[in-house]
Write a structure and sequence with these properties.
Two copies of one chain form a homodimer. With 214 residues, chain A is an all-alpha fold. Chain A has a single domain (8-205), classed as Tetracycline Repressor, domain 2, CATH 1.10.357.10. Chain A is 67% helix and 0% strand. In chain A, helix 1 packs across helix 2. Chain A is elongated. Chain A binds a DNA duplex (30 and 30 nucleotides) through residues 6, 8, 18, 20-21, 24, 45-47, 55-59, 61-62, 65-67.
Chain lengths: 214, 214
DNA sequence: CTAACTTTCAATAGATCTATAGAATTTATT
DNA sequence: AATAAATTCTATAGATCTATTGAAAGTTAG
């Protein structure tokens, strides 16, 4: 009768398996991801998201306290898997080339198979106020650090050129992968494994012909 | 007294030098570019753009018939220079490496020196309805074609590896450049020429150490 | 100085869209 | 079956925001 919690959206960081709720909340995140990916954060309406889920606009607020929170959760959702997988790859003891292939594969596979959330993370996260981006930022720099570490190892083992700037290369790899990731999302006909292979090849060998027959 | 053209925005494809008008219209496009780059198309308001120009919200419609038209013009504005410059580079008779350097330089310089419009073109053009994107699309494919042609020449002259997919490489180059372009826009401390050099180097030579001392 | 033209302004209608609140319905529990 | 709890609905206030309109202010030219 007083102010009980009528709104699940308020008590929302527990991992407790309210099974029913948790499952539909996930659907909500995925619906938001799809809609944000298509129309952009500001271009999308809560109505769009609700429609995607087959519920009424107002009902959406049972799952999200605000549209902004929805964006935040979509971004985190899209990015968490991705960083987790990266950690696993880096932990394994593998030759450099294999690691790099695994990294590119992980990155691009994530785009194709799973989430518009990846796209939303890339394109829309800057519309979040800084407070809401803290976790995402942390994940992002974790990811880059891991990647730079892999590159540093590669240099140490003499597989990579010694004069490389790992920071620069890390950003570039992420750039290429994101760019192709977007293409994969946009164009269903694009072959995933072909793309993976070509990206890796470009990153490793560049374009120059090193054995020119004269 | 009937319906005369009170609105310049309606008669707007003439290159005639209404000097005063033309100059301020350019300021309008640049203001829109800045605001769209910061807040995104849907996140920006006509009020924001007007404020950036120091005029009232309603007055903006003297220069643009609609917010959407503003976006279209910003995208075209950002991209035209860019394609024009590309043509010049390709026409010149130069060795492959020089051409590639020039292309990367042109691309990144355009980001740093001139326009948020580049950013808007990249990030926001898909929010335009197809009709409004016709010109932009044409320019885009012109650009890619030119780039692919340069690459094909490189292969022919045996400077580049024969097994390259020019289409793929072209997209990748654009991807890397856009990615670093965004970084250049976001981070003023980033050195332009350093970035250019590193991008070119990566594209040409990749990362692998081709002369490993054992 | 006056008339014609250009540019800006102020005010607003009409159309959103977010978020809230309380009722209605469905689902789970005793 | 009766009660409690969870989920969804309807309706709406309040806050935008775009685009229009006609008047005001500024500029140019005769």
């Amino acid at each position: 009768m007083t102010n009980e919690t009528h709104n699940k959206a308020e008590q929302d960081q527990d991992g407790a398996d309210n099974s029913k709720y948790v499952k539909k909340k996930l659907l909500a995140i995925e619906a938001a991801a799809k809609v944000f990916a298509d129309k952009g954060f500001h271009g999308a309406t809560t109505q769009d998201i609700a429609a995607e889920m087959g519920i009424q606009q107002g009902s959406l607020y049972y799952y999200f306290k605000s549209k902004e929170q929805a964006l935040q959760e979509v971004c985190e959702y899209g990015f968490e898997h991705y960083v987790t997988r990266m950690k696993k790859i880096c932990d394994k003891d593998q030759p450099f080339e294999a690691k790099m292939l695994a990294i590119v594969t992980s990155h691009l596979t994530n785009y194709r198979s799973k989430h518009s959330a990846m796209k939303v993370h890339n394109d829309q996260r800057l519309y979040l106020p800084t407070e809401r981006r803290a976790k995402i930022k942390k994940l992002g720099s974790e990811y880059r650090d891991l990647l730079e570490q892999v590159l540093a190892e590669g240099i140490e083992k003499n597989v990579l050129r010694a004069n490389l700037d790992t920071h620069f290369i890390a950003y570039s790899i992420i750039g290429i992968c994101n760019s192709w990731g977007s293409n994969l999302v946009r164009d269903d006909d694009l072959d995933l494994f072909d793309t993976i292979e070509q990206c890796s090849d470009l990153i490793l060998h560049g374009t120059i012909n090193t054995t020119p027959k004269m």
